[in-house]
Write a structure and sequence with these properties.
Layout lengths: L1 H34 L10 E5 L5 E5 L2 E4 H13 L2 H36 L1
Antiparallel strand pairs: 1-2, 2-3
Length: about 120
């Protein structure tokens, strides 16, 4: 009785283990197909080429642009960002206020301990 129960359990566990492995393999294959690996019909998302005048053109999702122009535009945006500068100022102010308040608190605690020792 116990022997047949044990055999059935082992067979069931083996079948379920093989089913899990097969499911993992199917999921892996599905992810690869979804990402486009090994798919000859998969279109190229980005393409970079050089032009005759030395500029480098990039095509991203069908939109073509010159990389140097985009780089200059990003540098211009990075040089003047009001919110970034405002955030830096607020951060510095909060850090200074926290430092001053912590120093004052530490000084008060030292004063209290010195009064207790007297």
């Amino acid at each position: 009785m116990m022997k047949t129960f044990l055999m059935r359990c082992l067979i069931l566990i083996s079948i379920l283990f093989v089913a899990v492995l097969a499911g993992m393999q199917l999921a892996n294959d599905g992810l690869k197909r979804m990402k486009g690996y090994n798919d000859p019909t998969y279109e190229q998302v980005a393409h970079i080429t050089g032009t005759e005048n030395g500029n480098v053109e990039a095509t991203l999702l069908g939109n073509t642009f010159i990389i140097e122009e985009k780089q200059k535009e990003l540098e211009r945006l990075k040089t003047f960002n009001v919110f970034s500068r405002l955030g830096d100022g607020v951060t510095a102010g909060v850090q200074k206020a926290a430092q001053v308040s912590m120093n004052a608190f530490a000084q008060k605690v030292q004063d209290i301990f010195q009064e207790i020792r007297k």
